[in-house]
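Practice problem 4.
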């Protein structure tokens, strides 16, 4: 199957060589344990602003940092992500971190995942965007090769209640920042780096977290409205998070 995946991607890449339409591709990674309404709000808001050709939801394999809790099996997290993408023609559930045996047991670093997509979307003008919440961006200095990552693609940072967006600039090494043009006021919607841009998406304000969803399910409470309807059904049919 791993081979089939690679063939499909090579085929798609080949099929597009004649069109030369520069593509806007968004990568949205997370544990998605489970994917919830906050994630969907972020994806829709980013899509409304940037009009992506494709927005890839990438459930993480085994996380690089040891988690405080055991993640639900990859197969379930991927299935739920697929269901959440169902009504959106260009929201794509991605197996990029499934690993060669599709078990999701391999550790993937974002820098490698971004390079993988860069390899596929390699036509002139193709642009990659990495979507994440403000809480995740504030921790970016702990990620592998984060300086290279910041230089590799644009970022879209979604505001998240409880996390200050005015602190985002502080986690970027000063030498990566573009020199401000004289007399120009600071752009409140973007941080300009020498080789990329960190866009701030402050049109989302969702209090939903996967932790809260799991807690409610564990207590036997409803998660109606906190996760997409199809995901709610899936969780109930599979008796997850109890
Ligand atoms: P957990 O509660 O298990 O830590 P989570 O709700 O943060 O999970 P993840 O799958 O870890 O969900 O998140 C994937 C990405 O989505 C991260 O970059 C995170 O910052 C972002 N994100 C998740 N929920 C929100 C939200 N309500 N608003 C903005 N960003 C969010």
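Answer key:
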């Amino acid at each position: 199957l791993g081979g089939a995946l690679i063939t499909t991607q090579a085929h798609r890449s080949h099929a597009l060589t004649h069109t030369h339409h520069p593509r806007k591709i968004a990568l949205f990674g997370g544990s998605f344990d489970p994917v919830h309404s906050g994630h969907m709000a972020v994806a829709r808001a980013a899509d409304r602003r940037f009009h992506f050709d494709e927005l890839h939801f990438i459930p993480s394999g085994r996380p690089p940092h040891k988690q405080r809790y055991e993640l639900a099996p990859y197969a379930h997290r991927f299935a739920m992500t697929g269901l959440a993408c169902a009504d959106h023609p260009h929201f794509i559930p991605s197996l990029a971190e499934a690993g060669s045996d599709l078990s999701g047991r391999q550790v993937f670093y974002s820098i490698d995942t971004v390079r993988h997509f860069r390899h596929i979307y390699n036509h002139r003008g193709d642009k990659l965007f990495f979507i994440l919440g403000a809480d995740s961006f504030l921790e970016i200095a702990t990620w592998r090769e984060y300086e290279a990552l910041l230089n590799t693609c644009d970022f879209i940072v979604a505001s998240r209640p409880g996390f200050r967006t005015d602190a985002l600039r502080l986690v970027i090494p000063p030498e990566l920042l573009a020199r401000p043009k004289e007399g120009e006021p600071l752009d409140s919607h973007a941080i300009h780096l020498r080789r990329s841009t960190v866009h701030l998406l402050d049109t989302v304000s969702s209090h939903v977290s996967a932790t809260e969803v799991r807690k409610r399910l564990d207590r036997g409470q409803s998660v109606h409205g906190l996760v997409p309807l199809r995901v709610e059904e899936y969780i109930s049919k599979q008796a997850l998070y109890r």
